[in-house]
Description:
Shape: globular
Radius of gyration: 21 Å
Helix content: 25-40%
Mean pLDDT: 92
Low-confidence stretches: none
Structural class: alpha+beta
Distance between the termini: 26 Å
Order of helices and strands: EHHHEEEHEHEEHEHEHEEEHEHEEHHHH
Number of helices: 14
Strand content: 25-35%
Number of strands: 15
Amino acid sequence: MNTTLALRAGIEPALALMERVLHPVHPLAEAYPLAFQEGFPGKVVQLADDQAARCALAVVPRVFVLPGGAIKLGLIGSVVTDPAFRQQGLASQALAAAEEYARREGCLATLLWADDAGFYLARGYRAVGVEVDIPLPPEALNRLPVAQGVREFEARDLRLMHVLHVSQPVRVHRSLDETRALLAVPGCRILVATRDDLPIAYAILGRGEDLGHVIHEWAGEAQAVLGLIRAHGERYYAERGAQSQCLFVIAPEFPQPVTQTLCDLDTQARRGVLGFGKLVDRRQALERIAAAMNCDLNTAQDRLQGFSDRELLEALLPPRAESQNAIHIARALGGAPNQLPRFPFAWGLDSI
Protein backbone atom coordinates (compact mmCIF):
# COMPACT_ATOMS: atom_id res chain seq x y z
CA MET A 1 0.00 0.00 0.00
CA ASN A 2 1.56 3.29 -1.10
CA THR A 3 0.98 6.52 0.82
CA THR A 4 1.12 9.69 -1.28
CA LEU A 5 0.39 13.38 -0.90
CA ALA A 6 -1.50 13.75 -4.16
CA LEU A 7 -0.91 16.54 -6.63
CA ARG A 8 -3.97 17.95 -8.37
CA ALA A 9 -3.54 15.60 -11.31
CA GLY A 10 -3.50 12.64 -8.92
CA ILE A 11 -6.51 13.18 -6.68
CA GLU A 12 -9.12 11.47 -8.87
CA PRO A 13 -8.76 8.04 -7.19
CA ALA A 14 -9.14 9.63 -3.74
CA LEU A 15 -12.13 11.71 -4.83
CA ALA A 16 -13.78 8.64 -6.33
CA LEU A 17 -13.35 6.77 -3.04
CA MET A 18 -14.58 9.72 -0.96
CA GLU A 19 -17.71 10.17 -3.03
CA ARG A 20 -18.43 6.41 -3.05
CA VAL A 21 -18.17 6.21 0.75
CA LEU A 22 -19.61 9.59 1.76
CA HIS A 23 -22.46 9.78 -0.82
CA PRO A 24 -22.41 13.60 -0.90
CA VAL A 25 -25.38 15.39 -2.46
CA HIS A 26 -22.99 17.81 -4.17
CA PRO A 27 -19.59 16.96 -5.69
CA LEU A 28 -16.87 17.37 -3.07
CA ALA A 29 -14.92 19.77 -5.28
CA GLU A 30 -17.93 22.11 -5.22
CA ALA A 31 -18.66 21.66 -1.51
CA TYR A 32 -15.03 22.08 -0.37
CA PRO A 33 -13.22 24.11 -3.02
CA LEU A 34 -10.19 24.98 -0.89
CA ALA A 35 -9.50 21.29 -0.36
CA PHE A 36 -10.14 19.94 -3.85
CA GLN A 37 -10.01 22.68 -6.49
CA GLU A 38 -6.98 23.82 -8.45
CA GLY A 39 -5.24 26.93 -7.17
CA PHE A 40 -6.15 26.53 -3.49
CA PRO A 41 -4.02 25.26 -0.60
CA GLY A 42 -5.57 21.85 0.07
CA LYS A 43 -3.80 18.52 -0.44
CA VAL A 44 -5.11 14.98 -0.50
CA VAL A 45 -3.46 12.10 1.33
CA GLN A 46 -4.28 8.77 -0.27
CA LEU A 47 -3.29 5.19 0.40
CA ALA A 48 -3.58 3.10 -2.75
CA ASP A 49 -2.69 -0.29 -4.16
CA ASP A 50 -2.46 -1.27 -7.80
CA GLN A 51 -6.24 -1.27 -8.11
CA ALA A 52 -7.54 1.92 -6.47
CA ALA A 53 -7.35 4.29 -3.51
CA ARG A 54 -8.24 2.46 -0.30
CA CYS A 55 -8.06 5.30 2.22
CA ALA A 56 -7.95 9.07 1.78
CA LEU A 57 -8.39 12.42 3.48
CA ALA A 58 -8.00 16.13 2.75
CA VAL A 59 -5.71 18.52 4.64
CA VAL A 60 -5.76 22.32 4.28
CA PRO A 61 -3.25 24.57 6.11
CA ARG A 62 -5.02 27.74 7.32
CA VAL A 63 -3.97 30.79 9.32
CA PHE A 64 -6.28 31.62 12.24
CA VAL A 65 -6.27 35.33 13.00
CA LEU A 66 -6.50 36.15 16.72
CA PRO A 67 -6.31 39.37 18.70
CA GLY A 68 -2.64 40.26 18.74
CA GLY A 69 -1.41 37.43 16.55
CA ALA A 70 -2.12 34.37 14.41
CA ILE A 71 -1.85 30.57 14.60
CA LYS A 72 -1.47 28.23 11.63
CA LEU A 73 -3.49 25.02 11.85
CA GLY A 74 -3.91 22.12 9.44
CA LEU A 75 -7.59 21.40 8.87
CA ILE A 76 -8.37 17.74 8.17
CA GLY A 77 -11.58 16.41 6.64
CA SER A 78 -13.28 13.84 4.40
CA VAL A 79 -11.48 10.94 6.09
CA VAL A 80 -12.64 7.71 4.40
CA THR A 81 -11.58 4.08 4.11
CA ASP A 82 -12.87 1.58 1.59
CA PRO A 83 -15.28 -0.64 3.60
CA ALA A 84 -13.46 -3.77 2.37
CA PHE A 85 -10.16 -2.49 3.81
CA ARG A 86 -11.24 -1.27 7.25
CA GLN A 87 -9.66 -2.42 10.53
CA GLN A 88 -6.22 -2.52 8.90
CA GLY A 89 -4.86 0.74 10.33
CA LEU A 90 -5.09 2.62 7.04
CA ALA A 91 -6.89 5.66 8.47
CA SER A 92 -4.25 5.93 11.18
CA GLN A 93 -1.52 5.91 8.52
CA ALA A 94 -3.28 8.57 6.47
CA LEU A 95 -3.84 10.71 9.56
CA ALA A 96 -0.17 10.46 10.53
CA ALA A 97 0.85 11.50 7.00
CA ALA A 98 -1.49 14.51 7.16
CA GLU A 99 -0.08 15.52 10.54
CA GLU A 100 3.47 15.35 9.23
CA TYR A 101 2.54 17.41 6.18
CA ALA A 102 0.88 20.02 8.42
CA ARG A 103 4.02 20.17 10.58
CA ARG A 104 6.22 20.71 7.51
CA GLU A 105 3.88 23.51 6.39
CA GLY A 106 4.45 25.37 9.65
CA CYS A 107 1.23 24.38 11.42
CA LEU A 108 1.14 24.34 15.22
CA ALA A 109 -1.57 21.67 15.31
CA THR A 110 -4.15 19.83 13.23
CA LEU A 111 -7.86 20.46 13.66
CA LEU A 112 -10.86 18.41 12.56
CA TRP A 113 -14.57 17.99 13.12
CA ALA A 114 -15.41 14.37 13.96
CA ASP A 115 -18.51 12.19 13.86
CA ASP A 116 -16.54 9.37 15.51
CA ALA A 117 -14.79 11.20 18.31
CA GLY A 118 -13.52 7.97 19.86
CA PHE A 119 -11.32 7.15 16.87
CA TYR A 120 -9.53 10.49 17.08
CA LEU A 121 -9.30 10.60 20.87
CA ALA A 122 -7.47 7.27 20.71
CA ARG A 123 -4.96 8.88 18.34
CA GLY A 124 -4.06 11.84 20.52
CA TYR A 125 -6.79 14.32 19.60
CA ARG A 126 -8.56 16.36 22.23
CA ALA A 127 -11.38 18.92 22.28
CA VAL A 128 -9.99 22.39 21.65
CA GLY A 129 -11.32 25.91 21.25
CA VAL A 130 -14.80 27.25 21.82
CA GLU A 131 -17.85 28.38 19.91
CA VAL A 132 -21.10 29.78 21.25
CA ASP A 133 -24.23 27.94 20.08
CA ILE A 134 -27.36 30.09 20.33
CA PRO A 135 -30.84 28.65 19.63
CA LEU A 136 -33.36 31.03 18.04
CA PRO A 137 -36.93 29.73 18.37
CA PRO A 138 -39.63 31.66 16.42
CA GLU A 139 -40.73 33.65 19.47
CA ALA A 140 -37.25 35.11 19.93
CA LEU A 141 -37.06 36.68 16.47
CA ASN A 142 -39.35 39.65 17.15
CA ARG A 143 -36.90 40.81 19.83
CA LEU A 144 -34.32 41.47 17.13
CA PRO A 145 -34.19 44.63 14.99
CA VAL A 146 -35.54 44.76 11.44
CA ALA A 147 -32.79 45.14 8.85
CA GLN A 148 -33.09 47.66 6.05
CA GLY A 149 -32.34 47.01 2.40
CA VAL A 150 -32.29 43.21 2.74
CA ARG A 151 -31.70 41.20 -0.42
CA GLU A 152 -30.00 38.06 -1.66
CA PHE A 153 -26.25 38.14 -2.29
CA GLU A 154 -25.20 39.12 -5.81
CA ALA A 155 -21.82 38.69 -7.49
CA ARG A 156 -21.24 42.45 -7.44
CA ASP A 157 -21.24 42.31 -3.60
CA LEU A 158 -18.16 40.08 -3.44
CA ARG A 159 -15.43 42.65 -2.76
CA LEU A 160 -17.33 44.53 -0.06
CA MET A 161 -18.35 41.27 1.60
CA HIS A 162 -14.71 40.20 1.63
CA VAL A 163 -13.79 43.50 3.30
CA LEU A 164 -16.50 42.87 5.92
CA HIS A 165 -15.12 39.41 6.63
CA VAL A 166 -11.56 40.70 6.94
CA SER A 167 -12.79 43.21 9.53
CA GLN A 168 -13.70 40.37 11.91
CA PRO A 169 -11.28 40.29 14.88
CA VAL A 170 -11.31 36.47 14.94
CA ARG A 171 -11.35 34.58 11.66
CA VAL A 172 -9.42 32.36 9.29
CA HIS A 173 -7.37 34.33 6.78
CA ARG A 174 -8.86 34.23 3.26
CA SER A 175 -7.82 35.72 -0.04
CA LEU A 176 -10.42 37.36 -2.25
CA ASP A 177 -10.32 34.33 -4.57
CA GLU A 178 -10.94 32.03 -1.60
CA THR A 179 -13.89 34.14 -0.50
CA ARG A 180 -15.28 33.99 -4.04
CA ALA A 181 -15.02 30.19 -4.12
CA LEU A 182 -16.52 29.74 -0.66
CA LEU A 183 -19.52 31.97 -1.36
CA ALA A 184 -20.30 29.72 -4.33
CA VAL A 185 -20.53 26.57 -2.18
CA PRO A 186 -23.90 24.84 -2.79
CA GLY A 187 -26.63 25.07 -0.19
CA CYS A 188 -25.80 28.53 1.18
CA ARG A 189 -28.52 31.15 1.56
CA ILE A 190 -26.70 34.48 1.76
CA LEU A 191 -28.55 37.65 2.75
CA VAL A 192 -27.02 41.12 2.71
CA ALA A 193 -28.21 44.32 4.37
CA THR A 194 -27.53 47.37 2.24
CA ARG A 195 -27.26 51.12 2.43
CA ASP A 196 -27.48 52.91 -0.91
CA ASP A 197 -27.57 49.37 -2.34
CA LEU A 198 -24.08 48.60 -0.99
CA PRO A 199 -23.58 45.79 1.58
CA ILE A 200 -23.04 46.88 5.17
CA ALA A 201 -23.57 43.38 6.60
CA TYR A 202 -24.16 39.80 5.55
CA ALA A 203 -25.29 36.53 7.14
CA ILE A 204 -25.16 32.96 5.77
CA LEU A 205 -27.54 30.09 6.54
CA GLY A 206 -26.73 26.51 5.50
CA ARG A 207 -23.86 24.92 3.63
CA GLY A 208 -24.19 21.88 1.40
CA GLU A 209 -25.71 19.00 3.36
CA ASP A 210 -24.48 20.57 6.61
CA LEU A 211 -25.66 23.47 8.73
CA GLY A 212 -29.10 23.63 7.09
CA HIS A 213 -30.58 25.05 10.30
CA VAL A 214 -27.52 27.07 11.32
CA ILE A 215 -26.54 30.68 10.63
CA HIS A 216 -22.81 30.02 10.64
CA GLU A 217 -21.16 33.14 9.26
CA TRP A 218 -21.83 36.85 9.46
CA ALA A 219 -20.02 40.18 9.47
CA GLY A 220 -20.72 43.90 9.31
CA GLU A 221 -22.60 46.50 11.33
CA ALA A 222 -24.01 44.85 14.44
CA GLN A 223 -27.61 46.09 14.14
CA ALA A 224 -27.69 45.11 10.48
CA VAL A 225 -26.33 41.63 11.25
CA LEU A 226 -28.97 41.15 13.92
CA GLY A 227 -31.63 42.23 11.44
CA LEU A 228 -30.33 39.72 8.89
CA ILE A 229 -30.47 36.97 11.50
CA ARG A 230 -34.10 37.90 12.08
CA ALA A 231 -34.79 37.89 8.33
CA HIS A 232 -33.18 34.46 7.94
CA GLY A 233 -35.23 33.15 10.85
CA GLU A 234 -38.52 34.49 9.52
CA ARG A 235 -37.89 32.89 6.12
CA TYR A 236 -36.69 29.64 7.69
CA TYR A 237 -39.78 29.13 9.86
CA ALA A 238 -42.16 30.36 7.13
CA GLU A 239 -40.79 27.70 4.76
CA ARG A 240 -40.45 24.84 7.28
CA GLY A 241 -43.06 25.57 9.93
CA ALA A 242 -42.77 26.66 13.54
CA GLN A 243 -42.35 23.06 14.70
CA SER A 244 -39.33 22.42 12.47
CA GLN A 245 -35.79 21.95 13.78
CA CYS A 246 -34.81 25.00 15.83
CA LEU A 247 -32.67 27.60 14.07
CA PHE A 248 -29.22 28.12 15.60
CA VAL A 249 -26.52 30.75 15.34
CA ILE A 250 -22.88 29.82 15.96
CA ALA A 251 -20.64 32.63 17.10
CA PRO A 252 -17.13 33.23 18.42
CA GLU A 253 -16.81 33.85 22.15
CA PHE A 254 -14.79 36.96 21.43
CA PRO A 255 -16.80 39.78 23.05
CA GLN A 256 -18.74 41.69 20.42
CA PRO A 257 -22.25 43.22 20.25
CA VAL A 258 -23.86 40.56 18.03
CA THR A 259 -22.90 37.64 20.27
CA GLN A 260 -23.80 39.56 23.42
CA THR A 261 -27.22 40.61 22.11
CA LEU A 262 -28.08 37.07 21.03
CA CYS A 263 -26.98 35.64 24.38
CA ASP A 264 -29.08 38.26 26.18
CA LEU A 265 -32.20 36.83 24.50
CA ASP A 266 -31.91 34.10 27.16
CA THR A 267 -32.65 31.22 24.78
CA GLN A 268 -30.20 28.89 26.55
CA ALA A 269 -27.04 29.68 24.63
CA ARG A 270 -24.23 27.26 25.45
CA ARG A 271 -20.52 26.91 24.91
CA GLY A 272 -19.49 24.19 22.48
CA VAL A 273 -16.02 23.12 21.47
CA LEU A 274 -14.47 24.37 18.24
CA GLY A 275 -13.28 20.89 17.20
CA PHE A 276 -10.68 18.23 17.93
CA GLY A 277 -7.01 19.13 17.76
CA LYS A 278 -3.57 17.54 18.05
CA LEU A 279 -0.25 19.30 18.55
CA VAL A 280 2.18 18.57 15.72
CA ASP A 281 4.99 21.03 16.55
CA ARG A 282 5.96 21.11 20.22
CA ARG A 283 8.81 23.57 19.70
CA GLN A 284 6.45 26.07 18.06
CA ALA A 285 4.02 25.69 20.98
CA LEU A 286 6.81 26.43 23.45
CA GLU A 287 7.94 29.41 21.38
CA ARG A 288 4.44 30.85 21.35
CA ILE A 289 3.95 30.30 25.05
CA ALA A 290 7.35 31.87 25.81
CA ALA A 291 6.57 34.90 23.66
CA ALA A 292 3.16 35.34 25.31
CA MET A 293 4.69 35.07 28.78
CA ASN A 294 7.60 37.41 27.89
CA CYS A 295 10.26 34.85 28.72
CA ASP A 296 13.00 33.19 26.69
CA LEU A 297 12.57 29.81 24.99
CA ASN A 298 15.16 28.03 27.14
CA THR A 299 13.30 29.02 30.29
CA ALA A 300 10.01 27.80 28.84
CA GLN A 301 11.56 24.50 27.74
CA ASP A 302 13.05 23.94 31.16
CA ARG A 303 10.01 24.84 33.24
CA LEU A 304 7.45 23.15 30.98
CA GLN A 305 9.28 19.91 30.23
CA GLY A 306 6.85 18.00 32.48
CA PHE A 307 3.83 19.13 30.45
CA SER A 308 2.55 16.81 27.70
CA ASP A 309 1.79 17.89 24.14
CA ARG A 310 -1.90 17.66 24.96
CA GLU A 311 -1.50 19.97 27.95
CA LEU A 312 0.44 22.51 25.90
CA LEU A 313 -2.24 22.52 23.20
CA GLU A 314 -5.07 22.88 25.70
CA ALA A 315 -3.26 25.87 27.19
CA LEU A 316 -3.01 27.52 23.76
CA LEU A 317 -6.46 26.50 22.48
CA PRO A 318 -8.46 25.80 25.63
CA PRO A 319 -11.72 23.86 25.17
CA ARG A 320 -14.73 26.01 25.95
CA ALA A 321 -12.25 28.76 26.90
CA GLU A 322 -11.48 27.02 30.19
CA SER A 323 -8.16 25.34 30.94
CA GLN A 324 -6.45 24.46 34.17
CA ASN A 325 -3.41 23.76 32.02
CA ALA A 326 -3.31 27.40 30.95
CA ILE A 327 -3.34 28.44 34.60
CA HIS A 328 -0.59 26.00 35.57
CA ILE A 329 1.61 26.88 32.58
CA ALA A 330 1.19 30.61 33.13
CA ARG A 331 2.09 30.24 36.79
CA ALA A 332 5.18 28.18 35.91
CA LEU A 333 6.39 31.06 33.78
CA GLY A 334 5.32 33.88 36.09
CA GLY A 335 2.50 35.13 33.86
CA ALA A 336 -1.29 35.14 33.61
CA PRO A 337 -3.52 32.81 31.53
CA ASN A 338 -5.07 35.71 29.61
CA GLN A 339 -1.66 36.42 28.06
CA LEU A 340 -2.00 33.23 25.99
CA PRO A 341 -3.78 33.22 22.59
CA ARG A 342 -7.55 33.18 22.98
CA PHE A 343 -10.74 32.92 20.93
CA PRO A 344 -9.59 30.96 17.83
CA PHE A 345 -12.66 30.51 15.63
CA ALA A 346 -13.52 28.98 12.29
CA TRP A 347 -16.60 30.39 10.58
CA GLY A 348 -18.84 27.82 8.90
CA LEU A 349 -17.34 28.24 5.43
CA ASP A 350 -13.89 27.45 6.82
CA SER A 351 -14.67 23.87 7.87
CA ILE A 352 -13.73 20.96 5.61
